[in-house]
Amino acid sequence: MPDASVFNAWHADVANSAACDLVFQQALGLPPEVVSNSLLTWAGVADITAALRLAPGQTLVDLACGRGGYSQEVARRTGARLVGMDFSAVAVTIAERSTDQRARARFCVGDFTAIGLRDHSAEAVMCVDAFQFSQAPLAALAEWRRILAPGGRLAITGWEPIEPVDQRVPERIRRMNLARDLAEAGFEQVEVTGKPDWYAAERALWQAAVQVDADGDPGLVALREEGTRVLETFDAKRRVLGTASVPLA
Question: pLDDT of the chain along its 249 residues, tens only?
């Protein structure tokens, strides 16, 4: 699994590349003021907002928040308070700088299995395109359930293999099975939905990335290299949104 230093370098390169942000905006339909954390489309932000069912003043925790763009938009739409957490200190610093001072948001460095919030202190948790990096998925979900209030909602985006035995797919994706893991962790109302429209936008992003003239831009260079790898096994995966609730009792 990549460690924090890999993501520190990636976030630093992308944050200094307006051209890289433009690739994400055009493929994912993001407005210029919303920075991408990963590969969620603008329609995907709406899907997550609807799934979390937040009310004004409630607390949203964004795990692996990256630069914070997606969850800040969800908080803006719902009036929720936001706590963003990432194991990349660089990402957290960028998120803090980009936060509107009027917003009720704070960001911190932390780990999936040691979030540092009180029991039942949040009404919603979101995790965009990062759950596959958990070293202990069930322990992570147990921690997420701990901080959620009874009836609290969880939304996870990511990828699952078409065939779990397909050795071309990275092991961290092959082991992904949100329906199984969410149920085993004690969540209820578990629903895992395929998102082919999101995946079509992602394909367009990677195709644009591999064709772009990087011209010495570290962010574009990293994006092009990643796109080349991802496209090799693109059709062996599917894009998913997993949602679930904490039991009321």
Answer: 677 788 887 777 777 788 888 999 999 999 998 888 789 999 999 999 999 999 999 999 999 999 899 999 999 999 999 999 999 999 999 888 877 655 689 999 999 999 999 999 999 999 999 999 999 999 999 999 999 999 999 999 999 999 999 999 999 999 999 999 999 999 999 999 999 999 999 999 999 999 988 788 888 998 899 999 999 999 999 999 999 999 997
Contact 89, 8 (CB under 8 A): yes
How far the first Cα of the chain sits from its last, in Å, is 36
Domains of the chain and any CATH numbers? 4-245 (3.40.50.150)
Sort strands 59-63 and 81-86 into parallel, antiparallel or unpaired: parallel
DSSP string covering 42-57, please?
HHHHHHHHHHHT--TT
* Residue 229: closest CA among 171, 177, 168, 159: 168
Q: Per this entry, what is the length of the chain? A: 249
